[in-house]
């Protein structure tokens, strides 16, 4: 592997001069021999990223403007809501001071206003307080006031017609805002086209296309020169063709730039026409707004006159109070109120008696429950003591039984050993007797015969002894196994006995608990019977109280029917007053809405005017830029050599046809993908410039 050679500062300076639009001090070095470095690739990538970021920045700025407008409108709504609440509270306080308390307490009609339920608790509380105050105020006013309906109805019809006109104006404003947004989008497209025209990378690509045509012409000239032998003629022809093609390319670029300028001028004319139309529409909207403001001021004057009439309507109220019917109604109302108060007192007495009975019952129940709980706790403590003593006695009994069983097993072993010892003694006695008998017989028989007989007998004795010994050993082994089995079974028996005793203990404890629970159930049944008897007595008392309540309700219904018949006449008059006041309220609300809508229209007009001025400035700025671009197009002839050098830098140094779209990680040199793939397939895996080795994993894709 060959190490990467760092370029000298002189070469770096030349490379910078070729990339930037400055001429190098030594123009003798051809630009095609200097490859694109990684810094150059990064520069082109940054330029492309910058263009995308600029586009995103413009979009974000538009979105931020729309967000700010939305926040501004929301803050205005919140301010308007708070001011309206404040004004209503002031209005209610002023009228409450001027109205007597007697008028407010006579008739409380809670169905004057429509109730509103809101999910937010704080807002619902505010609305409920305002609802109560307004209902009280309107009840007090409606008892005394009477207004004519003609003026209010005419004003209401006029307000409805003006509302329709305002909705039409709002629709026009929305159309204007949509046109404004379309104009903004067109201006953004123009800005993008302008940035794309002025981008250095696109200029280099266009120059690259011209240079590729030059390379094709060079190949054609070389093929013709192979047939002829004159090298000088080849050079002259190639130079001439290059000069003509470069001129043609420059003319094409100038034509394209002129076409773009013409298109931009046409777009500018269209934008100016649209802006002029928008100005005309805005002026017409201004005139309409002025007319609406004058109309609203007239309506306010009329409403003030009506309010003045309502305030000066006290003389007729005094005449109504002097009339005989009104006095008789007041007297009947007083009598009914007195009877209702008496009935309420009787109700309260009955309720107090019921509460006293219930309190006594609750005290008795608490006492019985406390006694019952104390007895249960004492019984439980006594039972726990007895159970502990029983468990202790049973555990001692079980331990003693296990000891007795162990002693019995040891006693059986000792008896078996004594039996074995007795058998051994009997066997030894028999052997001794046999020996004595043999000695007597041997004396009779001769010595030889004695010896033979002795030998035979000895053998028989030995065999018999062996058999007896084996039988004894087998019996001993069997006895030992039986003893082991007996020990195991005895241990298991003791464990089973312990489990049996534990189960019996649990059975005894459960039986004792069942007895206690049965006693508790008996006591509870007695308490339930007591409670049932108390419930029957209480039901009887409740029946009596319900009968009393029914009688009182009948009396109340009779008085209410009389009261309703008396108040029906008053309600008819109140309805007329309510309708008139509701109309007045609607007028006030419509006026406030009209004012708010006018403010919104003024704000929208100001925002549209600001947007129009900003767009006008942008159009002028773009015009100036396009003019400057037209002036600079004449100066492009001087920088053709630099552009050709830059284009040759973007072309592959091996084939001189394709653009450099692949770079090597090891050395940083750039080539086209086809040349690199050919080298990899042909096993020539070395850089053609610096001979540094590379593989498939050392290849990076680049985008110019």
From TrEMBL:
It is found in: Nucleus. The keyword Metal-binding applies. This is E3 ubiquitin protein ligase. InterPro entries: E3_ubiquit_lig_Bre1 (IPR013956), Znf-RING_euk (IPR027370), Znf_RING (IPR001841), Znf_RING/FYVE/PHD (IPR013083), Znf_RING_CS (IPR017907). Keywords: Chromatin regulator, Coiled coil, Metal-binding, Nucleus, Transferase, Ubl conjugation pathway, Zinc, Zinc-finger. Its EC number is 2.3.2.27. It holds the Pfam family zf-RING_UBOX. The keyword Thylakoid does not apply. PANTHER family: E3 UBIQUITIN-PROTEIN LIGASE BRE1, RING FINGER PROTEIN-RELATED. CDD domains: RING-HC_Bre1-like (cd16499). One of its GO terms (cellular component) is nucleus.
């Amino acid at each position: 592997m060959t190490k990467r050679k760092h370029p000298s500062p002189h070469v770096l300076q030349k490379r910078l001069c070729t990339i930037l639009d400055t001429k190098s001090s030594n123009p003798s070095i051809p630009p095609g021999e200097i490859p694109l470095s990684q810094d150059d690739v990064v520069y082109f990538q940054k330029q492309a990223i910058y263009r995308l970021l600029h586009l995103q920045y413009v979009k974000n700025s538009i979105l931020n403007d729309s967000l700010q407008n939305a926040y501004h409108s929301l803050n205005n709504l919140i301010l308007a809501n708070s001011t309206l609440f404040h004004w209503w509270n002031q209005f209610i306080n002023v009228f409450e001071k001027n109205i007597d308390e007697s008028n407010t307490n006579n008739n409380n009609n809670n169905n004057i206003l429509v109730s509103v339920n809101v999910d937010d608790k704080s807002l619902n509380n505010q609305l409920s307080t305002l609802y109560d105050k307004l209902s009280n105020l309107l009840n007090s006013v409606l008892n005394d006031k009477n207004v004519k309906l003609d003026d209010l109805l005419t004003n209401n019809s006029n307000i409805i017609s003006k509302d329709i006109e305002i909705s039409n104006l709002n629709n026009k404003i929305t159309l204007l805002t949509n046109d404004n947004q379309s104009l903004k989008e067109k201006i953004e497209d123009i800005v993008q086209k302008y940035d794309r025209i002025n981008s250095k990378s696109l200029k280099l690509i266009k120059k690259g296309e011209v240079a590729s045509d030059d390379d094709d012409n060079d190949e054609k000239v070389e093929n013709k020169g192979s047939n002829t032998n004159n090298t000088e003629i080849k050079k002259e022809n190639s130079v001439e063709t290059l000069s003509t093609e470069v001129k043609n390319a420059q003319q094409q670029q100038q034509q394209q730039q002129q076409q773009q300028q013409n298109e931009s001028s046409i777009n500018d004319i269209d934008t100016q026409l649209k802006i002029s139309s928008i100005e005309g529409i805005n002026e017409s909207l201004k005139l309409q707004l002025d007319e609406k403001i004058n109309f609203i001021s007239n309506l306010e004057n009329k409403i003030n006159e009506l309010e003045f009439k309502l305030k000066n309507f006290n003389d007729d109220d005094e005449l109504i109070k002097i009339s005989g019917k009104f006095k008789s109604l007041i007297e009947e109302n007083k009598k009914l109120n007195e009877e209702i108060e008496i009935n309420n007192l009787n109700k309260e007495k009955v309720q107090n008696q019921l509460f006293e009975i219930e309190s006594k019952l609750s005290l008795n129940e608490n006492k019985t429950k406390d006694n019952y709980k104390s007895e249960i706790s004492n019984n439980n403590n006594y039972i726990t003591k007895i159970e502990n003593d029983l468990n202790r006695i049973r555990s001692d009994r079980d331990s003693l039984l296990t000891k007795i069983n162990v002693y019995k097993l040891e006693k059986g072993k000792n008896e078996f050993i004594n039996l074995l010892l007795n058998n051994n003694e009997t066997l030894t006695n028999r052997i001794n007797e046999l020996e004595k008998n043999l000695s007597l017989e041997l004396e009779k028989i001769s010595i030889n015969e004695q010896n033979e007989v002795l030998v035979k007998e000895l053998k028989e004795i030995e065999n018999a002894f062996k058999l007896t010994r084996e039988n004894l050993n087998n019996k001993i082994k069997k006895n030992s196994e039986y003893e082991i089995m007996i020990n195991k079974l005895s241990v298991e028996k003791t464990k089973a006995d312990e489990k049996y005793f534990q189960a019996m203990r649990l059975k005894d404890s459960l039986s004792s608990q069942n007895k206690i629970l049965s006693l508790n159930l008996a006591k509870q049944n007695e308490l339930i019977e007591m409670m049932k008897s108390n419930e029957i007595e209480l039901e009887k008392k409740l029946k009596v109280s319900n009968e009393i309540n029914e009688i009182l309700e009948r009396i109340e219904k009779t008085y209410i029917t009389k009261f309703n018949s008396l108040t029906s006449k008053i309600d008819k008059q109140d309805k007329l007053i309510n309708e008139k006041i509701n109309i007045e309220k609607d007028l006030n609300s419509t006026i406030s809405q009209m004012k708010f809508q006018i403010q919104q229209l003024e704000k929208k007009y100001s925002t549209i005017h600001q947007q129009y001025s900003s767009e006008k400035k942008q159009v002028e700025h773009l015009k100036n830029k396009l003019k400057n671009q037209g002036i600079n197009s004449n100066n492009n002839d001087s920088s053709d050599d630099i552009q050709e050098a830059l284009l040759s830098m973007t072309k592959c140094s091996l084939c001189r046809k394709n653009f450099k779209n692949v770079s090597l990680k090891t050395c940083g040199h750039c080539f086209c993908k086809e040349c690199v793939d050919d080298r990899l397939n042909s096993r020539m895996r070395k850089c053609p410039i610096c001979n540094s080795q590379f593989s498939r994993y050392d290849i990076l894709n680049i985008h110019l």
